[in-house]
Prior knowledge:
Layout: E1 8-12, H1 16-27, E2 31-36, H2 44-47, E3 51-52, H3 65-74, E4 80-82, H4 87-99, H5 103-117, H6 120-128, E5 137-146, H7 149-154, H8 156-164, E6 170-172, H9 174-180, E7 190-200, H10 203-216, E8 220-223, E9 226-231, E10 236-240, E11 244-247, E12 249-252, H11 259-264, E13 271-282, E14 292-294, E15 299-304, E16 307-316, H12 325-338, E17 346-357, E18 363-367, E19 370-377, H13 383-398
Parallel strand pairs: 1-2, 1-12, 2-8, 4-16, 5-14, 12-19
Antiparallel strand pairs: 3-7, 5-7, 6-7, 9-10, 10-11, 13-16, 13-17, 14-15, 15-16, 18-19
Helix pairs in contact: 1-10, 1-13, 6-13
Amino acid sequence: MTVDGNLRIAVVGAGIVGVSAAEWLRRDGHDVVLIDRNQPGQATSFGNGGIIARCSIVPVPVPGLLAKAPGMLLRANQPLFLRWSYLPRLLPWLLPYLASAKRERVVQIAAALAPLVTDAFDEHTALARGTPAEKWLRSSDYIYLYTDRSAFDDDAFGWDLRRDHGIVGTSLTRDDLSDLDPGLSETYKFGYALSDHGFIADPGAYVGALAAWFSAQGGRVLRAEVEDIEARPDTATIHTDGETIEVERVVLAGGAWSADLARRLGHRAMLESERGYHVEFAEPSHTPPCPYMIADAKFVVTPMDAGVRAAGVVEFGGLEAGPSRAPTQLLERGMRRLYPNFHYASKREWLGHRPATVDSLPLLGPSPKSRIVYFAFGHHHVGMTAGPKSGRLIADMIANRRSNVDLSPYRVERFDR
Length: 417
């Protein structure tokens, strides 16, 4: 231990979850090193939709998905893509993932996601307050756009789940939507507005600023590739491509890249990359008044400091393959459907890797094989939303502080053979 009784801790992974864990641990007085091969906030946290979505308790696999998926893969205007050459490697993950779409299981998953996301804006505020990152944090509504009221009614299963967890919105007519956003296409005639949400106007800069604050306050940021973790009962050795580090606790928060290190530690993570895309439009002709979820196309549109970002889409193709053209083309078509006269000065395209477990829940907590190692990855679509809360929970576990959250759904050994 360090001389004051606190711990030497390594956090592996400098996305929002890892940076949050590192900063909460630093505030507890620990000697913390944050390790990533990239600059903090420059991987998956860089390119997400930026929405602090306290409503995001409904997983992607829901009742009826299995019947719809083949048709979605074969139609160009659907937000689901597959690199077919990757299918043999994907199947051991894909089959249990689709099996989790049973109604009873989805209800359980939603109940487990709720404690991580429903107070998300407050958690972000607590983490960012008084730091340079605070300037990118915006409180806002979050509006789901539908082609008409019947399309909203077709989503009743998801909205009933949200309502069961206290998430209730306000219906918006076509006239209401036109008043809010005069350039909005006539395609969208119904909206559902959720208050108490928010967004981050530059996710990459936000996470980078939190990491810079962590460093300025005494934490250490190390740019290195973690090659192995050697865990013993009381200490661990982190082997990187630049140096070897001795610590007393390890937090594995490497997102979609965590599976290999988890395997070396004796765990089967059942983790896959759910590849997501964004297109960010600079100097756009139209900017939404708040973030939108385009319900029929399953992508979000967020007003960012650098322009308007359209983000979403699901593509299965692993961590190694480069970007595909079809997903970004779909997002561009979606923007022109949203705003018929949409134009812009320039655009930037991006591909990232959501860390997806087969049950849409993160691995969050200590390893029973090595109690000094804690997992904090697998947040699927809610990484940015749930990052600060997850980091706080990890800090509480390491400090042996009692939590009012039932942590059993996130136990790290649940996929082990």
